[in-house]
Amino acid sequence: MSSHNRGARPCAGRRALLGGTALALIAPPWWPAIAAETAPERQPAQVGDLLAFPSWEHADRLLAPDDLVTGAEPLLVYPRDPATGVSRERSRLNQILVCRLAPGTLDEATRAHAAGDVVAYSGICTHTACGITGWNAEQAHFVCPCHQSEFDAGRAGQRVAGPAPRALPALPLALSDGHFVIRGSFTSAVGASA
Ligand code: FES
After folding, report:
1. Whose CA is nearest to atom 1 of ligand 1?
2. Handedness of CA 53, 193, 105, 182 (dihedral sign)
3. Distance 189 CA to ligand 1 centre (A)
4. How far is the CA of 124 from the centre of ligand 1 (A)?
5. Does the CB atom of residue 191 touch ligand 1 within 6 A?
């Protein structure tokens, strides 16, 4: 039993003394899930985090500029705390897609968040939060496999097809010491629209 649960079960005497307050301290059934959300590997991306491959791919290493080929399929990465080395890969909302676009194809809004020609976006569709796995290489569009929404990587993630109601959130990046660093929050809320 976790320490949270031990604390949530006062003895009968204390319960009588504390009355309604004691009831308020009893953890509801969903408490473990809420507590788990605060674990470092589940925390949202933070400014200053580095981008790293998932632990089950590429030996869990940091993303490097040479990993990105112009026009090639986006790579899936997660934010990693540079101080602790913890990758925040236990929350699917932290899925990030990174790709290198052809020079001169990024509009002004996209360039504002890019590291050169490299752009990063949330990997979670804004329709009903499917993971985005498709890529239209000819047009540089992310493609959601669930209902075929498409998002333009070179135009700030704007939705260009399908039922998604809004753009993919972009993630501002910088290149520092050969690695990609998050330099700002996502440009909008990650996940499905309310
Ligand atoms: S969840 Fe992506 S288009 Fe529906």
Report:
1. 128
2. negative
3. 16
4. 9
5. no
The SS3 of residue 88 is coil
Q: Which part of the chain is CATH 2.102.10.10?
A: 40-182
What counts of helices (H) and strands (E) characterise the chain? Answer: 5, 10
What CATH number should be reported for the domain whose range is 40-182? 2.102.10.10
The C-alpha torsion from 55 through 58 and 64 to 67, rounded to 10°, is: -140
Phi, then psi, of 4 in degrees rounded to 5: -60, -45
Q: What is the pLDDT of residue 194?
A: 60
> Mind listing the pLDDT tens digit for each residue in 56-93?
887 779 999 999 999 999 999 999 999 999 999 999 99
The residue behind tokens 């330099």 is: 183
Do the beta carbons of residue 7 and residue 18 sit within 8 Å? no
Q: Which of 125, 135, 142, when mutated, tests ligand 1's pocket best, judged by the most ligand atoms within 8 Å of its CB?
A: 125
Placement of tokens 């540089």 in the chain: 140
Give Cα 81 to chain centroid, integer Å. Answer: 13
User: Per 3-state DSSP, what percentage of the chain is helix, strand, and coil (rounded to 5)?
Assistant: 20, 25, 55
